[in-house]
Every structure is written in C-alpha cells, then in structure tokens.
Amino acid sequence: MRTGLLILILLFFIAGCGRSGPGGTPGGGAPKPAANSPEQVVTAYLNAIGRSDYKRAVGYLEHPRAVVWPGVGLLEETFKATVPPDVVRLTGVAAGPTFTVSAQGDEVCSLARAHIAPGKEAHRWGIGQEGDWRFAFYLIKRNGNWRLARGMPLPQELADYLAGNRNPFQNVVSQVPVVVERGKGYKLTFDLHLPKALASVEEVSVAFMPEPGTEKYPYSYETAFSTYWYGPGGQKNLMGHFDQTVEIDPEMPPGKYRLYLGLGTNPPLYWAVPPYVVTVK
Fold first, then answer.
1. How far apart are CA 276 and CA 273, in angstroms?
2. Which residues of the chain fall below pLDDT 70?
3. Which of 9, 131, 224, 275 is least surrounded by CB atoms within 10 angstroms?
4. Statement: the pTM of the whole predicted model exceeds 0.90
5. CA gap 84, 125 in Å, rounded
6. At CA 212, angle to CA 210 and CA 213, rounded to 5?
7. What are phi and psi of 236, to 5 degrees?
C-alpha cells in the first residue's frame, strides 16, 4: 500500500499513447463558449486545440490547470501567448458515447476520437506520429455548465472497455463521511470484476482529487492496493473482494476533494464513490 502526493504525470500525453492505428470558472479572462452537452464540450474543445485556439480551449476547462490532453503545461504556457505554438492538428473529431461515473449525475465520461497530425512543436508535448487517436474526457457540471476536469488518450482496448459503460467496481459500500479528518481511517469495501482484457491490472486505488480552489490542485492523493494474492504454492490469484481502511493522509491540505476508486491501467481510470465530494479538515 502506498500513500502520498501523486506528481502529475504526463504519461497520459506520451507519444502514441492514444493511437489505435499507424470546476470552477475558467480564469484569466478566457471566453466562455456555449455548449450544452458533454459531447458538445468535448467536440468544441478538440476543435479549438486543432485550430491552436488555446484561449478558447481553456474556456472549456474547469480550471486552466485541469489535467486535460494535450497537457497542463501546454495550455498554461499558451494561454497568454501572443503567437500560439503549432503543436497538433485534428480532423474527424467525434464525441460519444457518454456515460455517468457518479450516481449524482454531475460527472460523466465522454469518449472521443480524432485524427492527429503533429505540428512543428509537437515533440515538446510528446505527440508522435500521425494517426487515429481515442480519448476519454471526464466532465463535471459546474454552475449548470459542463466543464472538462480530466482528459487523456486511450489505447484501443481501454476505449473498447469504456464504450460498453462497464464499471469494474461493484457492491461499493463507503463509510467515508462528508467531512473527514487527516490521519484518521475510514472503511471502504467493494468487489472487483476484471474482464480478461484487463487481467494484467495489478493494483486498484482510492483517490482524493482536490476541487479547484483547494491547495495543491490538480495534484491528487492516492492509496493503492494489490489486486493479487499468492497461494501456498506461489500461484497468483486475483482478489475479488476488498475490505479496506482508507487513511486520510496527514499532509493533505484542508479543502474539498472528490473521492474515486481507480483502476491501475495506463492511463488509470476512475469511478466516483459516495459521498463523492468530501471536506478534509
């Protein structure tokens, strides 16, 4: 088990990661384009990236530093740039299907696809060869509007898994209250059902992702558990049931966090867990 501050990894954005072939109010004066559905937001965002219109792209995020492809650093750097860099061109953008990841209905995952053609500065952001990419974008409803909270390219097998609206976490019973204290532990039980295509996954996790306005956003705190146990003869067995005590990291800054169960794929995938939003004191 490990607990600690997860440094934002741009592994989501490494070359070829998503190829299947060859919160708050946007800051800094970003425009606030009209988009009424998650699919419209995702399509408009990707089209803005494809036009190198990064200022408009930031307007679709829950926060300028949201962890959304093609990378936190890119959007942050180019937001106020006089001449935007030529990073990537996108064509054939299509969004959907979309499914909810929280019982409250305020968070969804929208899949998307696009044809990617690297620009002159694509190498700086880990964008490799030209090809067809798949994506997963997580959107949260903020003040009545859908905003992008996370987004990353996916390998084909993960895109196919999510397209079936499948959740590997079943029978979730959370005793995590809406207000938690650092250093204390809370019970969380769940069953894990992995398809054969994801049988190589070796860990699951409980993640606390800070809301915009909480110190350290968008860094998250995570506790990971192995998905396997070994029998007397050394055989590897998949764990189907987890009965865990999740300790709140003493170093977590006070504030609001969203609670998730994470699947240790590459990139990792998350499903919201009751009570969804918790306050850390």
1. 5
2. 1-35, 72-81
3. 9
4. no
5. 14
6. 100
7. -90, 125
